[in-house]
Amino acid sequence: MMEKRVYADYNATTPLKPEVKASMIEDLDIYGNASSMHASGRLARARVEEARRAVGTLLGSAPEDIIFTSGGSESNNTVFAAMRRLADESGGGRRAFITTAIEHPCVLNSARYLETLGFPVVFLPVDEYGKIRLEDLEKALSDKTLFVSVMMANNEVGTIEDIKEISALVKKAGAFMHTDAVQAAGKIPVNVADLGVDYLTMSAHKIYGPKGAGALYVRRGAPLFPLIHGGHQEDGLRAGTYNNAGILGFGKAAAIAAAGVQEYGRTFSALRARLRDGLFGAIPGIKINGHPVDVLPNTLNVSFPGAEGEAILLLMDINGIEASTGSACASGSLEPSHVLMALGVGPELAHGSIRFSFGWGITREDIDYIVETLPPIIARLRSMSTMPVHA
Ligand SMILES: Cc1ncc(COP(=O)(O)O)c(C=O)c1O
Fold this sequence. Notes:
Blueprint: E1 6-7, H1 18-27, H2 39-59, E2 66-69, H3 72-90, E3 96-100, H4 105-116, E4 121-124, H5 134-140, E5 145-149, H6 163-172, E6 176-180, H7 192-195, E7 199-203, E8 214-218, H8 244-282, E9 287-289, E10 299-303, H9 309-318, E11 321-322, H10 338-342, H11 347-350, E12 353-357, H12 364-384
Parallel strand pairs: 1-11, 3-4, 3-5, 5-6, 6-7
Antiparallel strand pairs: 2-8, 7-8, 9-10, 10-12
Helix pairs in contact: 1-8, 2-8, 3-4, 8-12, 9-12
Bound molecules: pyridoxal-5'-phosphate.
């Protein structure tokens, strides 16, 4: 009998969609250098530009405003490094940065690095649901603020920030606005013009595309400098020979995602509710982390008082269920999740929290399997624990 496996860790990464995989296998034969002038180069280039149009369509942007990168981490690092250079070169009074306490490590650590170089950085707190308060942002903004980065949707708890309102405040203060939309794009509608952002980050491998491909949207006229210096690719803003298959797979994934955002919302809100209600009915004392309404349809973060997260993961894995205790990049760390701590979940409860994240491929039967499998695991861990169940 085939062992049952339920993959519920789509926020860490997604499998390639079969159509994306099939087209990438073909794309591997598009070997021309997309910067070459001959026919092979022109063919590769035409396909790269087709992918750029598809990514632009997903984000409501003109294709020319999309820069291909190696992924979300590079896009975020690029925009932080560019702002640092802008602050240095302009020599003016705007040198202050604002971000939030719940960003992905590639933003948090970019901001911390700037702090070590002497730039003022504010890490905005969030409320108990993971939203920043607009009053806090207003207080932090000044005529010294150069750049604000607030993620569109959180990878651990799924909370969706009010980016449109945040952008409006940032623009009023004369600063540049960036959002990390790696977890939002393809899951909820994302439109750069409507959001009013100057920069937006996305990544292919969260939308059933390949790992190692991503994009940075740059509003026309917004300043940018390269992180990777070299050739003239991407208008001199991101050097390096085009990763044909990666970019083409990204384009295919973006086109599929753009056509399916509404269906995604309907499908996964229903599965999320099924898991939430099933777990509430089966396990006493649990708590849901994240915003009750403004939340990604595919993300359910649950605290299990009296049980330890790593142990839950291990026992779930033995029973064929794959989830996560937080972001995949932070796993292996013994520190409680910085996101849950920022939401005010105490360290004990934060250590007993699991992120379930769904995507295409997971079924109602899979959700029911999680609901059946988890209660004895939690009961077993609670019976061995000295931690209180009603934390
Ligand atoms: C919110 C967020 N930003 C950025 C990243 C990094 O993207 P990539 O893996 O493409 O570098 C991730 C990936 O986990 C993420 O969830």
